[in-house]
Amino acid sequence: MSVTELQELVRFLEDRFACAQACTEYARACALRASLADLDGTEEQRLVRRKGILCAEVCDTTCRLLAEQVTLSEDVMRVQVEWCRTVCLETAEVFEKAAGDSGRSAGSDCGSGSDCGSGSDCDSGSGSGSEESALACRDCADACSTFLSLLR
Q: The organism sits in which domain of life (predicted)?
């Protein structure tokens, strides 16, 4: 094996691990965001919850696939990682919309550094946490894109 081939293999493994790690971290963040959404809330809150749960499941599955399945073909990896990236980007849009809508709602202090108490939009799946969750979504999608660039 040449030095170049060895370097490519190391980069492949490093990016595969980085993608799996980003998926794990994001799955946790997404599950948390989904758990904050009110079950009987508005349609937006239900959408945040559904997307959060879906994204957590897809990211968790992608992480396990990348971390545990060493004999997978590149085609199988590509499909799973592309799906993960797509779901992350869609979820980021939902979370960003939730953050934007809560900032415009009357009497909402979310995102202003205040202590969001019971009954506020922060407790219902909207608010400043949505912005951080959206950023985590995009970070995971970026890690997926980086890894996809290595697959042939």
A: Bacteria
Instruction: Look up the pTM and report it.
Output: 0.74
Domain containing 97 equals 10-101+124-150
Tokens coding 51: 């997307």
Q: For residue 73, which amino acid is it?
A: S
Rounded-to-integer distance, Cα 28 and Cα 41, Å = 22
CA distances to 63, 90, 137 from 71, rounded to whole Å, are 15, 29, 27
In a domain, 129, yes or no: yes
Kind and range of the H or E element at 126?
Answer: none
Count structural domains, the chain. 1
Query: CA 106, CA 95: separation in Å to the nearest integer?
Result: 19
Mean pLDDT per 10-residue interval, the chain, length 152 residues:
81 84 81 79 86 90 84 86 94 88 45 32 49 87 90 74
Q: Which residues contact 31 (CB under 8 A, 6 or more apart)?
A: 52, 53, 56
